[in-house]
Amino acid sequence: MGDYKKILNPLVPSSYVAHRREKRAQKWLRQIAINNPENDHYSLQPFVNTKSIFVHIPKAAGISIAQSLYGCRAGGHSRYVDYKNYFGNEIENYFVFT
User: Fold this and answer.
1) Considering all CA atoms of the chain, what is the largest pairwise distance in Å, rounded to the nearest integer?
2) Which terminus of the chain has fewer CB atoms gathered within 10 Å of its CB, N or C?
3) DSSP letter assigned to residue 96
4) How many angstroms separate the Cα of 5 from the Cα of each of 8, 35, 74?
5) Residues 80, 86, 89, 90, Cα dihedral to 10°
6) Can you give the pTM of this predicted structure?
7) Do 54 and 69 meet the contact criterion of CB atoms below 8 Å apart?
8) How far apart are CA 80 and CA 64, in angstroms?
9) CA–CA dist 72, 42 (Å, integer)
Protein backbone atom coordinates (compact mmCIF):
# COMPACT_ATOMS: atom_id res chain seq x y z
CA MET A 1 0.00 0.00 0.00
CA GLY A 2 2.79 2.44 0.81
CA ASP A 3 4.77 1.60 -2.34
CA TYR A 4 3.04 4.28 -4.40
CA LYS A 5 4.32 6.91 -1.95
CA LYS A 6 7.91 5.85 -2.66
CA ILE A 7 7.26 6.32 -6.36
CA LEU A 8 5.28 9.57 -6.15
CA ASN A 9 7.20 11.42 -3.42
CA PRO A 10 10.12 12.38 -5.67
CA LEU A 11 7.63 13.59 -8.29
CA VAL A 12 5.70 15.92 -5.97
CA PRO A 13 7.53 19.14 -5.07
CA SER A 14 7.89 19.66 -1.33
CA SER A 15 6.55 23.20 -1.72
CA TYR A 16 3.27 21.74 -3.01
CA VAL A 17 3.07 19.34 -0.09
CA ALA A 18 3.69 22.20 2.35
CA HIS A 19 1.07 24.31 0.57
CA ARG A 20 -1.56 21.55 0.84
CA ARG A 21 -0.72 21.04 4.53
CA GLU A 22 -1.21 24.78 5.15
CA LYS A 23 -4.55 24.79 3.33
CA ARG A 24 -5.79 21.80 5.35
CA ALA A 25 -4.73 23.47 8.60
CA GLN A 26 -6.45 26.74 7.68
CA LYS A 27 -9.64 24.88 6.78
CA TRP A 28 -9.51 22.96 10.07
CA LEU A 29 -9.12 26.12 12.13
CA ARG A 30 -12.01 27.76 10.29
CA GLN A 31 -14.16 24.70 11.06
CA ILE A 32 -13.44 24.93 14.79
CA ALA A 33 -13.51 28.70 14.80
CA ILE A 34 -14.42 30.74 17.82
CA ASN A 35 -18.15 30.93 17.16
CA ASN A 36 -18.90 27.32 16.33
CA PRO A 37 -21.63 26.05 18.67
CA GLU A 38 -22.10 22.80 16.70
CA ASN A 39 -18.63 21.56 17.61
CA ASP A 40 -18.46 21.00 21.36
CA HIS A 41 -15.23 18.97 21.27
CA TYR A 42 -12.99 21.51 19.55
CA SER A 43 -13.15 25.25 20.05
CA LEU A 44 -10.80 28.22 19.97
CA GLN A 45 -13.04 30.26 22.28
CA PRO A 46 -11.20 29.10 25.45
CA PHE A 47 -7.96 30.44 23.95
CA VAL A 48 -9.58 33.84 23.50
CA ASN A 49 -11.16 33.78 26.96
CA THR A 50 -7.89 32.96 28.73
CA LYS A 51 -5.50 34.73 26.34
CA SER A 52 -3.48 31.50 26.24
CA ILE A 53 -2.82 28.91 23.55
CA PHE A 54 -1.91 25.31 24.26
CA VAL A 55 0.01 23.71 21.39
CA HIS A 56 -0.72 19.99 21.65
CA ILE A 57 2.26 17.75 20.94
CA PRO A 58 0.98 14.35 19.75
CA LYS A 59 1.41 11.37 22.09
CA ALA A 60 2.07 13.62 25.11
CA ALA A 61 -1.32 13.53 26.94
CA GLY A 62 -2.37 16.75 25.23
CA ILE A 63 -6.07 15.89 25.05
CA SER A 64 -6.17 15.34 28.81
CA ILE A 65 -4.32 18.60 29.41
CA ALA A 66 -6.56 20.59 27.06
CA GLN A 67 -9.67 18.99 28.56
CA SER A 68 -8.62 19.87 32.10
CA LEU A 69 -7.52 23.43 31.26
CA TYR A 70 -10.16 24.45 28.73
CA GLY A 71 -13.01 21.95 29.13
CA CYS A 72 -12.68 20.82 25.51
CA ARG A 73 -10.04 19.58 23.08
CA ALA A 74 -9.30 23.18 22.08
CA GLY A 75 -7.43 23.29 18.76
CA GLY A 76 -6.53 19.63 18.48
CA HIS A 77 -3.13 18.91 16.92
CA SER A 78 -2.79 22.31 15.25
CA ARG A 79 0.73 23.66 14.98
CA TYR A 80 1.96 27.01 16.28
CA VAL A 81 2.22 28.35 12.74
CA ASP A 82 -1.45 27.46 12.19
CA TYR A 83 -2.47 29.49 15.23
CA LYS A 84 -0.19 32.32 14.13
CA ASN A 85 -1.89 32.37 10.74
CA TYR A 86 -5.34 32.31 12.33
CA PHE A 87 -4.80 34.85 15.13
CA GLY A 88 -2.32 37.05 13.26
CA ASN A 89 -0.36 39.60 15.30
CA GLU A 90 -2.83 39.22 18.17
CA ILE A 91 -0.98 36.01 19.11
CA GLU A 92 1.81 38.19 20.55
CA ASN A 93 -0.62 39.08 23.39
CA TYR A 94 -1.28 35.41 24.21
CA PHE A 95 0.62 33.09 26.53
CA VAL A 96 1.62 30.18 24.25
CA PHE A 97 2.81 26.91 25.78
CA THR A 98 3.17 23.18 25.03
Assistant:
1) 47
2) N
3) E
4) 5, 38, 32
5) -100
6) 0.65
7) yes
8) 19
9) 6
